[in-house]
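Batch 3, record 17
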Amino acid sequence: MSFLKRLFRQRTKRVTITICGLDNAGKTTIVRYLVAGEYKSTVPTMGVNREVIDLPNLQMDIFDLGGQLDFRGIWPEINEKSDGLVYVVDASDYIRLDESKEIFYNIINAQINPLIPVLILLNKCDLEERLSRIEFINAFDLPSLGNIKWACFVTSAITGEGIYDAFRWFIDAFQE
Amino acid sequence: MKPVSLCLVQMGTKGLELVKVYPNVLPEEILNQIVVKSMPFNAKNGDFASSTIGDAVFSGYIFSVPSENERDNIASLVAVYNNMNYDSNALRKVFAFTIAELKKNNVADIETLTKILPNLYNGLVNGRLKIKISSVITLEFDMQYKDEKDVDLESLNGFGKDLWK
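Prediction for the assembled complex:
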């Protein structure tokens, strides 16, 4: 490639994204859906999985963080370098909602740069017994996030519902 | 090939947890470290990993544990030795064969593995594995035979090399 072509070619923006949430929320299944475009069964993440997704002018370096208690100690180090946070909540897990909320606010208040976009996914919407988006937003007290750029989407990593729209918002947030 | 101990480790709700150790001869602090180190970060179904803790050396075969109602889990079969003089490749073959056979017969669950752990240990000690899972399922693996086959293959390859010279 000539010097001028190299000089003027469109640069690809690289962003580091972290995906957090309680164990069994569906984080890896969502990443697999993004990569493969279809549902793939998963096993619990052993610490960290890393996937790179290339889009036109945007390369997403995704760190999918294991949700088990023992692995949460490594989250702050990775989250502080993150350009965008995806937080996944199991919409059918009413029992652990408070635990998930506590972890979410710990990440927001102590681990990430407050200027990065935060995408919240209310996952497993294919299940019958689940929280609605409104119930979840109130339960998580999301309006209190103030100046943080956030959005909440209802998703299913099995059917793919909502995933495209959610990541469309997220990618647009990086382009702005 | 005689291991000091065999451990079965699985992913629990908080993290990695020890399901069973046989024989239970290792100090607790060593066991705790083996559990933590039994699966490296980003470990996946079919991986084989080795590590050391003090004088203990161990190798583990990582595998998925199928589940009908919930998502599959991840677990590790770990053999602990007191020196490095063991054939890790043969060990990997034994563990991979055992898990593959259990999966083939839809019995690759933690309960079955817990039950057969002593037999698996004795099989590694004797160099010959024969585990009756049920009235119709018996696992058999002869490490001597496999080793001889490998040696034969190596000598044949050697013969080929000699011819080339």
